[in-house]
Amino acid sequence: MAQSNGDHSSAAKPPPTPSPLRFSKFFQSNMRILVTGGAGFIGSHLVDKLMENEKNVIVADNYFTGSKDNLKKWIGHPRFELIRHDVTEPLLVEVDQIYHLACPASPIFYKYNPVKTIKTNVIGTLNMLGLAKRVGARILLTSTSEVYGDPLIHPQEESYWGNVNPIGVRSCYDEGKRVAETLMFDYHRQHGIEIRIARIFNTYGPRMNIDDGRVVSNFIAQALRWVYFS
């Protein structure tokens, strides 16, 4: 989990009042969880685990990079709800936890529509934080190793601020995630929102798009096609 750095001497405000059932066994077995980007590669695996743990899951996805096929085994299940929704628009639901994964993570997709990418990171995160504030939910943001940019130290500690180009072709994603992290900590300090941030590095596995332009998928695709590694 990413930690704040620098001098933040002022204490965070107390969190919004959650449901009185938050810590009861009844609550744990009836927890409602929102997963944005839940039809994507990583999001769909998270949904699988939550459903297997008998949670009530709401997925919000606009299918820009995700696919309904990734969730087909849960469609129609009484504890599962799938909403076609773009997180740049407010979402009015009542939930106890939010996993905010929605954002194109493939260089091919975010270079194709950089404005959409940064709007998803910034406006989408603002909308999810606003929801968390309204309902008193804990929120987790999936960030990225790209917040370190082209790091000047190896390995990188969480306290490293990074070396990022603010105007490059990747900046819509890199800087968008950095702003999203800033918003998370600002809402925590100003409004007492309970937050988590996970900076995800190169990931691969079932349901990944082999042509999404990321280093691991490129490596595997080139090996399968007997192409020289580049």
From TrEMBL:
One of its GO terms (molecular function) is NAD+ binding. Signal peptide: none annotated. Pathway: Nucleotide-sugar biosynthesis; UDP-alpha-D-xylose biosynthesis; UDP-alpha-D-xylose from UDP-alpha-D-glucuronate: step 1/1. Its cofactor is NAD(+). Residues 34-223 form the NAD(P)-binding domain. It is a single-pass type II membrane protein. GO terms for biological process: D-xylose metabolic process. It comes from the Eukaryota. Keywords: Decarboxylase, Glycoprotein, Golgi apparatus, Lyase, Membrane, NAD, Signal-anchor, Transmembrane, Transmembrane helix. It catalyses: UDP-alpha-D-glucuronate + H(+) = UDP-alpha-D-xylose + CO2. Its EC number is 4.1.1.35. Its main location: Golgi. GO terms for cellular component: Golgi cisterna membrane; Golgi membrane. It is found in: Golgi apparatus membrane; Golgi apparatus, Golgi stack membrane. Belongs to the NAD(P)-dependent epimerase/dehydratase family. UDP-glucuronic acid decarboxylase subfamily. Catalyzes the NAD-dependent decarboxylation of UDP-glucuronic acid to UDP-xylose. Necessary for the biosynthesis of the core tetrasaccharide in glycosaminoglycan biosynthesis. This is UDP-glucuronic acid decarboxylase 1. It comes from Linum tenue.
